[in-house]
Write a structure and sequence with these properties.
- By secondary structure, the protein is mainly β.
- It has two domains: 79 residues, Immunoglobulin-like, CATH 2.60.40; 75 residues, Immunoglobulin-like, CATH 2.60.40.
- Helix content is 0%, strand content 45%.
- It is built from no helices and 13 strands.
- The strands form four sheets. It has a four-stranded mixed sheet with strand order 2-7-6-5, with no helix packed on it.
C-alpha cells in the first residue's frame, strides 16, 4: 500500500497595516486675548491663538502654539503697515495679518532738505568740483522736530542729465531723499 503523503502550505495571517495619519491642513482660531494691532517697536504676541491641525484620517487635534514655528519679516514692527504672520507645523501652515501703527510718541523720519549760503553759486560745468561744505542738511520727523545732520550722516550723489544743461544733486538720509536741479543759464 502506498502511503499517502499530504503537504500543507504554511499559512500566515497578515497583520493589518496601518498608515499613520499625517497633517494635511491647519486652522487658526482667535480669542479675545489675540492682538491684531501693534505699535511700532512692539514684538509679535501669539497669545489668544488656537491651532487646530487637520490629519489625513479626518481627525482634528489642537496643538499648543509653542509647538509651531512662527515667522514674521525681519523688519516686523519697524514701520506703519500691515504685516503677515506665518504659523507652521510640519508641512502645513496658515497665515494671518496684523497691523502696525505709529504710537503717539513714535518719531519717524518724514523728509530731508538742504539749505545753501546766500552766496552759493555754481554751474553745471562745475558739478564735479562743487563745494558743498556750506550746505546744511536737515531731517524732519513726524513729531515736527528737525535735526541738523552732520556730513557723515547723509550721502550726496551728483548727475548731469543727458541734455548736458541740467545737473541733479540728491541728498539721501536713511532711505529718504531730496533732489534739486541746477540748469545752465541761457
Amino acid at each position: 500500500t502506498a502511503a499517502e503523503r499530504t503537504t500543507l502550505a504554511p499559512t500566515t495571517t497578515a497583520a493589518p497595516t496601518t498608515v499613520a495619519a499625517v497633517p494635511t491642513g491647519m486652522k487658526l482660531s482667535f480669542d479675545e486675548d489675540f492682538k491684531n494691532e501693534y505699535l511700532i517697536g512692539e514684538k509679535i504676541d501669539m497669545s489668544g491663538i488656537t491651532v487646530s491641525v487637520i490629519y489625513t484620517d479626518g481627525t482634528v487635534k489642537k496643538i499648543p502654539i509653542s509647538d509651531c514655528e512662527v515667522s514674521v519679516d525681519d523688519g516686523f514692527g519697524t514701520d506703519e503697515r500691515y504685516e503677515t504672520v506665518k504659523v507652521s507645523y510640519g508641512d502645513v501652515s496658515e497665515t494671518f495679518t496684523v497691523r502696525v501703527l505709529y504710537g503717539e510718541d513714535t518719531k519717524s523720519l518724514n523728509s530731508v532738505y538742504a539749505l545753501f549760503p546766500d552766496d552759493f553759486k555754481f554751474t553745471v560745468k562745475d558739478l564735479n568740483n562743487i563745494d558743498l561744505s556750506g550746505m546744511e542738511v536737515y531731517a524732519i520727523y513726524s513729531d515736527k522736530s528737525r535735526e541738523k545732520l552732520s556730513g557723515g550722516e547723509y550721502t550726496v550723489t551728483k548727475e548731469i542729465l543727458p541734455d548736458n544743461k541740467t545737473a541733479m544733486i540728491t541728498v539721501e538720509y536713511k532711505g529718504v531723499y531730496t533732489t534739486f536741479g541746477i540748469e545752465e543759464e541761457k
